[in-house]
């Protein structure tokens, strides 16, 4: 008996030539681009785009703890707020603040970022991370984490390593890197990985729906490569930004 | 306000780009010392080294924890971050502004008596003991001590030169733009204006005040501020700042705003160059924040730096 999860049969996710719906190869990332410094009043901010997914992140801090009761005496308090703009999806939906999905993603981002921030260097302070999805086309979670990393680095907050994230799926018997919205809503497995690229550690691994062990291995390998590619890009953006600042500052 | 959003037209964009490109050509050595988070910093392991700010050790290698520029002083290796928050150090000059009247009041009566919390663009508010200063209201102070273990800073303002700041305006810029130097208090004689470049990124521009030796009522440990303030309010202000002087203050402030949004280093000399340029070009004060002047400042800076380089070479 076939116990695979039923896919939407009417769509072929991989053409006979081996290309995906948007013309990518199975192991191809979407076009990524990032800019630092989108929010003038934040300590650090960034816009991160993966294809049509666009996310903005702003970091405030380290600053004094607003709610005195939450202060931690030997480390920094990291807070994260995730929201989705009403206009970000195809149909305009008014989303209530603090629904299940956004609460969960806020938590995921917070935990992922907390793993790399050197919180012990900044006792009795708080770091606020705000991320907002401006355009949603699949992979918002990964895009949010990447944007948050950039914003934290731009704010000059000490970190053990960058965190980079990427997603992958498994459709029509092929592992596919960086799913877009159509592929994501096919109902197949969607694996999201967050890694510390230099330390070579995994900080986040989430998967929807079931996946066989063999398939998981191949997806995992693909998604790790994807994360590494994103990490290279993020590093180059950060270096360029720092260089620009130093240049303009002069001696 | 940390950045201006200036709408540039096509020609101005190109001029700005050429100016920035020239800046890049002028300083070619920057490239290799730039690090991003988690980049390895090469060190001489045989010679011995000390790890400073912004570095950590990983598998026997020195790794950066912030983005910035690698600096080496003898054996010390550290990363100078270009970040928008102040990094506290001893013996810096500060420009403090009391955060909020309400906060002071609460601090005074309930939590800790006899101290003020001072907003200093740092990750925490600093503490100013009332016993260690002479004047209430906007104060200037210097760092007495940093207590690294809990991160709070203690300030003191005993010296005569720290006093109330009046008749001027305060700007906030990114602290890395203000160069550390011995001299933070400047008196611009031609304008009769005081310029204070605080190392935490707070900049004060105000009417020049002579150093006052005969301050009225130097001790106010018991009287409290609320008392004193009400007295101040009751007495009508006798002196006022002339319009011309106020305009000059605004002119200097706008010069600083433009420099800050371009991300250029700030010293008294550079600020004065920009102010004088605006006067010779007959630029109105409000026009200084416009696109044309913005680009001109960038070009002027290129000119200045290249002439410096010529002078050296």
CATH class of chain A: Alpha Beta
In CATH, the architecture of chain A is 2-Layer Sandwich
Tally of distinct domains of chain A? 1
Q: For the terminal residues of chain B, how far apart are their CA atoms?
A: 38 Å
Give the chain pair forming the largest contact, with residue counts: A-B, 43 and 44 residues
Domain K Homology (chain B): 168-209
Subcellular location (chain B): Nucleus
Protein name (chain B): Ribosomal RNA-processing protein 4
Family (chain B): Belongs to the RRP4 family.
Topology:
The complex is a heterodimer of chains A (251) and B (313).
Chain A: E1 32-36, E2 44-50, E3 53-64, E4 77-84, H1 100-114, E5 125-135, H2 140-154, E6 164-171, E7 174-177, H3 181-184, E8 190-196, E9 201-208, H4 213-249
Parallel strand pairs in A: 4-5
Antiparallel strand pairs in A: 1-2, 2-3, 3-5, 6-7, 6-8, 8-9
Chain B: H1 10-26, E1 34-35, E2 40-41, E3 50-51, E4 55-58, E5 61-64, E6 68-73, E7 76-81, E8 93-98, H2 101-111, E9 115-119, E10 126-133, E11 139-146, E12 153-157, E13 168-172, E14 185-188, E15 193-197, E16 202-207, H3 225-234, H4 243-262, H5 268-280, H6 291-312
Parallel strand pairs in B: 3-7, 10-12
Antiparallel strand pairs in B: 1-6, 2-5, 4-5, 6-7, 8-9, 8-11, 9-10, 11-12, 13-16, 14-15, 15-16
């Amino acid at each position: 008996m076939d116990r695979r999860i039923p896919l939407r049969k009417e769509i072929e996710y991989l053409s006979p030539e081996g290309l995906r719906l948007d013309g990518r190869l199975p192991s191809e990332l979407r076009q990524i681009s990032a800019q630092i410094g989108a929010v003038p009043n934040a300590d650090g901010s960034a816009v991160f785009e993966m294809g049509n997914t666009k996310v903005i992140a702003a970091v405030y801090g380290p600053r004094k703890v607003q709610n005195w009761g939450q202060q931690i005496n030997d480390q920094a308090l990291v807070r994260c707020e995730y929201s989705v703009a009403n206009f970000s999806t195809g149909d305009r939906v008014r989303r209530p603040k603090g629904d299940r999905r956004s609460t969960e993603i806020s938590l995921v981002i917070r935990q992922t970022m907390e793993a790399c921030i050197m919180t012990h260097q900044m006792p009795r302070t708080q770091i606020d991370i705000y991320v907002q999805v401006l355009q949603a086309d699949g992979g918002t979670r990964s895009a949010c984490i990447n944007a948050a990393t950039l914003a934290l680095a731009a704010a000059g907050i000490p970190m053990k390593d960058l965190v980079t994230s990427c997603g992958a799926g498994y459709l029509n018997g092929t592992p596919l890197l960086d799913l877009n919205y159509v592929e994501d809503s096919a109902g197949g497995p969607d694996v999201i990985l967050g890694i510390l690229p230099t330390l070579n550690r995994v900080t986040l691994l989430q998967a929807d729906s079931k996946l066989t062990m063999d398939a998981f291995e191949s997806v995992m390998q693909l998604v790790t490569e994807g994360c590494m590619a994103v990490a290279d890009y993020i590093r180059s953006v950060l270096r360029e930004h720092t260089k620009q600042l130093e240049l303009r500052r002069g001696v | 306000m940390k950045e201006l959003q200036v709408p540039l037209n096509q020609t101005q964009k190109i001029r700005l780009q050429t100016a920035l490109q020239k800046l890049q050509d002028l300083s070619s050595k920057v490239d290799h010392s730039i690090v991003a988070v988690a980049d390895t910093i090469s060190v001489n392991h045989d010679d011995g080294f000390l790890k400073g700010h912004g570095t950590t050790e990983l598998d026997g290698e020195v790794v950066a924890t912030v983005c910035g520029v690698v600096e080496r002083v003898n054996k010390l290796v550290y990363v100078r971050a270009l970040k928008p928050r102040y990094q506290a150090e001893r013996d810096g000059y500060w420009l403090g502004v009391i955060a909020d009247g309400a906060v002071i009041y609460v601090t005074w009566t309930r939590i800790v008596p006899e101290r003020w919390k001072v907003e200093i663009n740092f990750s925490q508010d600093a503490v100013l003991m009332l016993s260690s200063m002479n004047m209430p209201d906007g104060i200037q102070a210097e760092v007495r001590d940093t207590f690294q273990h809990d991160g709070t800073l203690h300030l003191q303002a005993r010296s005569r030169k720290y006093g109330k700041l009046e008749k001027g305006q305060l700007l906030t810029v990114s602290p890395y733009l203000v160069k550390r130097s011995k001299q933070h208090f400047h008196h611009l004689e031609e304008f009769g204006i005081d310029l204070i470049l605080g190392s935490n990124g707070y900049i004060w521009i105000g009417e020049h005040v002579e150093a006052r030796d005969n301050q009225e009522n130097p001790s106010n440990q018991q009287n409290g501020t609320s008392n004193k303030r009400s007295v101040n309010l009751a007495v009508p202000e006798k002196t006022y700042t002339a319009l011309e002087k106020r305009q000059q203050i605004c002119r200097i402030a706008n010069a600083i705003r433009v420099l800050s949004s371009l991300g250029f280093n700030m010293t008294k000399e550079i600020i004065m160059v920009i102010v004088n340029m605006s006067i010779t070009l007959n630029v109105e004060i409000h026009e200084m924040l416009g696109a044309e002047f913005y680009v001109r400042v960038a070009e002027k800076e290129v000119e200045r730096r290249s002439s410096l380089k010529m002078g050296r070479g």
